[in-house]
Structures are given as structure tokens and as C-alpha cells.
Design goal:
Elements (H helix, E strand, L loop, with lengths): L2 H15 L12 H14 L8 H14 L16 H14 L1 H29 L1 H5 L5 E4 L5 E7 L4 H16 L3 E7 L5 H14 L5 H10 L6 H10 L4 H7 L3 H17 L6 E4 L2 E4 L4 H14 L10
Parallel strand pairs: 2-3
Antiparallel strand pairs: 1-3, 2-4, 4-5
Helix pairs in contact: 1-2, 1-3, 8-10, 8-12
């Protein structure tokens, strides 16, 4: 490589990377860079070593000799008068209201996407507590390919209305696993009935029959109602009442409260399926759709297929 070529490469690198003594780099063409290189070669004895500081000085001197370029500081910036600007913006938006609608829709999409991402992360962190907790009630197919979780309160009117839907889903879908989590939040009676229910679930009796009896009983559901339903199934109400306040029963209830607190669940019924939390008693077809999507793509919301 010739001495001129070496100089040319060095100078190009210096100009592209910035010269230490320059505060603003003007546009320098390739022809000007070659002019610098030619001048350096002509004025420098062959025996003299051109190090980087020497070349920086030559390039800086050359740039300083060029006609002054406009710098950002030289550009006059008109002062913005809010009194004039704001009415102009308002007038523009009033004349084009669809812009605001598009902005609102876009913002809503971002909010929903953020919430979904947060929910997926939280559900993943609580996976074992939600799906594998000791003492939880499992109905349907214990080895089902899709799991539907319901958090409920025996005194919740909406839970009562949703009971037939749950029964239908279990009956029509042999591969559905259902987990019921006691979440007594409405009254002391709800908490007492939930404690009895935890003990009933640990026995060999048909839990669904007990569950259905409580939800179809008239009036408020409390300890007395729960013990009566358990007694009708052949269980000893005295034994149940003695065991309903044990630490093991309390741990099952507390586990539901912990899940609810982490996921910001405040009402019943609340369903959990896959990567989604569904508050309220939703239509059975919505649950069917989500179950089908879980099987199709592993999420309750499958991406649309083009065409």
C-alpha cells in the first residue's frame, strides 16, 4: 500500500470518526480528503514519520480553513407561542377527529397487550400453586389436556348461576380437567362452609353432589347448611366440625387468598384457563371457545389465520 493510500485511509478515518479539536464536523467530500492527503505528502519529507497527532493537526487546520458551515447553534429557532400554537393544534384535531380515535385505539391495544404479558408472567410464577396445590378439588378428567380453574364463594349469586354451565362442560368434554378453589370473601358463613367443603373433598363421597347441594340450597350458605349436606352423604357432622379449623384446612383457604392477591382477583366467580384470567360469570360458549383455543394453539387467544 502506497504512502498516499495509507494517509488517505487515516484521514478518512479521522474525518469520519471526528477530530479531537473540532466541536462540529462540517461535510467533507472525498475530493477534499484526497486534497488533504496530497498536501500532506507534498509538504512532508519522506523521512518524517506521520503519527496520528500530526495528521489530526493537519486535518483540523484544513477544516478550519474551509468556509464556515451552519451548525445547530447557528440555526435560528422560532419561539413557539403556546397562545397561538395550542388553538392551532385544537383546530386541527377538531377537523380530524379520527386521529384521536386511532390514538385511543392504539393506546388501548398497548394497555391490553401489557396486561396480558403481565398476566402470563404472574400465572407462570404461580403455576404450581394454581394447578398442583395439595387439598384442591379436582373434577372431570384428572389427566385432561386442558384445565379450567374456578375460584368461587358458596354465597355468590353469579357462581350459583354459572353452576349449570360448569356441569355441562364436565359432562360434554371428557378431556377437561376442572379445579375448584374455595375463595370465601362474602361472609363469615361463606368461610365456614368453605372449611367444611375442604374436609368433604378429602373423603370418598361424591364431592359434586355436595357442591351442588350447597349451591341449590335456599338462603345463605353457612356451617349448618354445609354440615347438613355432608351428613346427607353419610359423613359425621361432629367430626367435620371438630376438624374444620385445623391448620391444614386453613392452609388450603389461605392458598386461594394468596393467589387472588397476587393476581388481583377480587370477585367470584373468577376463571383461570391457560394464560388468561376471566372475571365474572361468562357465557358457556365463551368458555368453550377458550378451551378449544387452548387445544389448538396453547393459548386462549389464537392468532387469526390469513385468508
Amino acid at each position: 500500500m502506497s504512502r498516499t493510500t495509507v494517509l488517505l485511509v487515516l484521514i478518512l478515518g479521522l474525518v469520519a470518526g471526528g477530530v479531537g479539536v473540532a466541536t462540529f464536523r462540517p461535510a467533507v467530500s472525498e475530493a477534499q480528503v484526497r486534497e488533504i492527503a496530497a498536501a500532506v505528502v507534498a509538504d512532508t519529507p519522506q523521512t518524517e514519520v506521520l503519527d496520528r497527532p500530526a495528521i489530526e493537526t493537519i486535518v483540523a487546520d484544513f477544516i478550519a480553513s474551509q468556509p464556515k458551515q451552519n451548525t445547530p447553534a447557528d440555526v435560528a429557532v422560532a419561539e413557539l407561542d403556546p397562545g397561538k400554537l395550542n388553538p392551532m393544534i385544537e383546530s386541527f384535531l377538531m377537523d380530524n377527529p379520527s386521529i384521536l380515535q386511532r390514538v385511543s385505539e392504539r393506546l388501548q391495544q398497548e394497555v391490553v397487550a401489557t396486561r396480558k404479558a403481565e398476566t402470563r408472567t404472574q400465572l407462570a410464577a404461580l403455576s404450581s400453586e394454581i394447578y398442583e396445590a395439595p387439598g384442591q378439588i379436582v373434577l372431570g378428567n384428572p389427566d385432561g389436556d386442558v384445565t379450567l380453574v374456578e375460584m368461587f364463594d358458596y354465597n355468590c349469586g353469579y357462581c350459583r348461576q354459572a353452576l349449570p354451565n360448569l356441569a355441562t362442560l364436565i359432562d360434554e368434554d371428557p378431556n377437561l380437567r376442572v379445579i375448584l378453589k374455595e375463595f370465601p370473601i362474602l361472609s363469615q358463613g361463606s368461610a365456614e362452609a368453605a372449611r367444611v367443603a375442604v374436609l368433604v373433598s378429602e373423603t370418598d363421597v361424591d364431592y359434586w353432589t355436595f357442591h351442588e347441594a350447597l349451591f341449590t340450597s335456599p338462603g345463605q350458605v353457612d356451617k349448618a347448611v354445609a354440615l347438613k349436606a355432608a351428613s346427607d352423604l353419610g359423613l359425621n357432622p361432629i367430626t367435620l366440625e371438630m376438624g374444620m379449623n385445623t391448620p391444614a384446612v386453613s392452609a388450603v383457604i389461605e392458598a386461594s387468598y394468596k393467589i387472588a392477591e397476587t393476581l388481583n382477583i377480587t370477585g367470584t366467580p373468577t376463571y383461570i384457563i391457560g394464560d388468561e384470567i376471566i372475571p365474572g360469570a361468562v357465557d358457556i360458549d365463551q368458555l368453550r371457545s377458550r378451551i378449544a383455543n387452548m387445544r389448538a394453539c396453547g393459548s386462549t387467544d389464537c392468532p387469526a389465520i390469513p385468508g
